[in-house]
Amino acid sequence: MNPKIRAILKAAAKVMAQKGFEKATMDEIAKISKVAKGTLYYYFKSKEELFLKLTLSILEELEERTKKVLELKVSAAEKLRALIKVQVEFFLEFHEEVVLVLGDFFGSTLPRESFRVKINDYYRLINQLIAEGIKANEFREVNLEIFVPAFFGMTSFATIRGILREKGFLKEQLIDNLTEIVLNGLKK
């Protein structure tokens, strides 16, 4: 990704996470990203377009990291643990963006179809992993339509809660606990 666009997206996440989508201004985003306002509008015609690009870019990043986990030559259970670790670390790294997207996006009037498409692409990757575990007789049959969003929600919100609490947040303990909960739920 173009370094200017990356800086703009990071600045947009910071401003929008602090002020909310509605109160954030393109002027503030331009100032924090250290680009001229004209440059900002060159890349993004509106705040809505900028927000949508921010949303899609973080989902694409999560999807790419997940694909790498699925390529590992280990058991489905080990991949699931690796996936939980990837998700927790992703949410730690992009916590402003994630809080913004999960908060403002669901409550806004912004176009949601692109988000739905991207999140469904990500869900298909998790489906693939769980189906692999079921086929290998590592996991029991589960309703993937319920399991996959529950898995995503559990890992994302548990990590965000840990970040917001700050005091005593232990990443490895969270990864271990989430892995135990998920694997116990999939046990035959």
UniProtKB/TrEMBL annotation:
InterPro entries: DNA-bd_HTH_TetR-type_CS (IPR023772), Homeodomain-like_sf (IPR009057), HTH-type_TetR-like_transc_reg (IPR050109), HTH_TetR (IPR001647), KstR2_TetR_C (IPR041490), Tet_transcr_reg_TetR-rel_C_sf (IPR036271). Residues 25-44 bind DNA. Keywords: DNA-binding, Transcription, Transcription regulation. The keyword GTP-binding does not apply. It comes from the Bacteria. Residues 2-62 form the HTH tetR-type domain. This is AcrR family transcriptional regulator. It comes from Carboxydothermus ferrireducens DSM 11255.
